[in-house]
Amino acid sequence: MKIMAIDYGDAHTGIALSDLTGTLAGYTTVIHSRRQAEVVEAIRRLISEHGVTELVLGYPKNMDGTLGPRAEKAAAFAAVLEAETGLAVTLWDERRTTIDAHNILMAGGKNARQRKKTVDAVAAALMLEGYLTRRKLEERP
């Protein structure tokens, strides 16, 4: 079983894939496109290439837990993904993942230009790690 986490953005969409056991985040990439159809097609290709069986989509709630325009956009994109891929989409609260991703890259010595190229993939990996950890904890008796 492979799980794909998606950090959907206006111009860049971060992707992270789990290993075959669904326990570790591994492969990451960024889809650079503003066109939803291009993003969906790239995601479909990755699903096919990597044998993905489950999708996790970042659901950007406001810091107080309320839903704003970004969360509504993510929910609408989830419906498109389900229709286009036939896979169920889990919405995952992604508050602070982009901030944490920037901090990780900054600590690694990446400047602003370098961070911009990879921050979405790192954010997707952080979402996937959180999701996988929750799954692991829920499986315990």
Summarize the model shown:
By secondary structure, the chain is of the alpha/beta class. 50% of the residues lie in helices and 24% in strands. The chain has one domain: Nucleotidyltransferase, domain 5.
Features:
single chain, 141 residues, alpha/beta, Nucleotidyltransferase, domain 5, 5-stranded mixed beta sheet, 5 strands, 24% strand
Q: How does this structure look, described?
A:
The longest helix is centred in the last third of the chain and has 28 residues. The chain has a five-stranded mixed β-sheet with strand order 3-2-1-4-5, sandwiched between helices. Helix 1 packs across helix 2 and helix 3 packs across helix 4. The radius of gyration is 14 Å and the shape is globular. 35% of the residues are buried. The protein has four helices and five strands; from the N terminus they run E-E-E-H-E-H-E-H-H. 50% of the residues lie in helices and 24% in strands. The chain is an alpha/beta fold. The chain has a single domain, classed as Nucleotidyltransferase, domain 5.
Spans of 5+ residues with little confidence (pLDDT < 50)? Answer: none
User: Total number of helical segments?
Assistant: 4
State the helical fraction: 40-55%
CATH class: Alpha Beta
Compute the CA-based radius of gyration.
14 Å
Strand % is: 15-25%
Distance between the termini: 22 Å
Q: Looking at the structure, what is the overall shape?
A: globular
Q: How many domains make up the 3D coordinates?
A: 1
Average pLDDT metric: 89
Order of helices and strands: EEEHEHEHH
- The count of strands amounts to 5
CATH architecture: 2-Layer Sandwich
The strand order across the widest sheet is: 3-2-1-4-5
Structural class: alpha/beta
**Major sheet: size, sense and barrel closure?**
5 strands, mixed
CATH homology-level superfamily: YqgF/RNase H-like domain
CATH structural fold name: Nucleotidyltransferase, domain 5
